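#help-structures
NK: newbie question, is this the right format to request a structure? protein is Naringenin,2-oxoglutarate 3-dioxygenase
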Amino acid sequence: MSVQRLLTTNSAAKSPVISLAGIDEVDGKRAEICKKIVEACEDWGIFQVIDHGVDTKLISDMTRLAREFFALPPEDKLKFDMSGGKKGGFIVSSHLQGEAVQDWREIVTYFSYPTKTRDYSRWPDKPEGWIEATKEYSDKLMGLACKLLEVLSEAMGLEKEALTKACVDMDQKVVVNYYPKCPQPDLTLGLKRHTDPGTITLLLQDQVGGLQATRDNGKSWITVQPVDGAFVVNLGDHGHYLSNGRFKNADHQAVVNSNYSRLSIATFQNPAPEATVYPLKIREGEKSVLEEPITFAEMYRRKMSKDLELARLKKLAKEQQLQDLENAKLDAKQLQDMENPKLDAKPIEEIFA
Ligand code: OGA
Ligand code: NI
């Protein structure tokens, strides 16, 4: 049975690719670029940016070092094992409690912001140079994320810093995903369907591809085609709530394939746990998408318990389906036996004779 349920893959639709060249020229192209970003957030919640100013060499170093890490022998990787609640390091697959199928991936996570909470003992020091590259990468990506949040704040009619300020002390984690090639890719997902909980995510994916987004609640999936050197930008739940639902929190998943392993580096910008989640702007005639202000920690807790409940229901439905199938098989057999009595079956009179 396929767990993917890819009913259709919509290949005609494409999520936007936006060049940021000239975004800092106030009297130049800025307005035009900002308009594209805002429209992409309203329509999709997921798009790609090119000419973003992050050095190509830094991007290729990060990718190369990450690939080298995953190629290390298990004992080297497991030195950074983060199972058991350690903050940062390596883990094989991650899955929701109660889900029957595990994600087909290995990950390394770096908690990079606030900088005072950085624990370098949890940052893999092999291959050499990875710590330095990750430091620079996380700083540059924090800069790019804030730049994009400025655009969205302005579009909401607020001061530039409104969204970053609402995060209180912005949190960042860099998650390096490695999806090994999979002998039976239609039996599993690299990463199950989800929305990111935080404010804004920047994802670097290699040329293999596998990231998909849906705009119709999972009926069709659109592949986010890899663009060399681009970052995929997507908003998370926090960004969605703060804009009162105006900006979409992209619903997405990652599929695996049988020919190639795949690498992606997701950098999540999240609010501080105690930051308040509530729309910063409610437009005329709109109702708030949230009944009351809650903390980000509480928003996350509710999301997780909803996900667990959904996973439980899905599992129950699957068990019920299997049971129904078994019952249907039994019914069919009985029917067949009645219609075609076995030739060697004795007539009833003989049995009672
Ligand atoms: C994620 C994510 C997609 C990918 O890590 O949250 O959506 O393509 N990753 O790896
Ligand atoms: Ni995601």
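mod (FA): yep, format's fine, and the tokens are attached above. The two ends are 49 Å apart (CA to CA).
NK: thank you!
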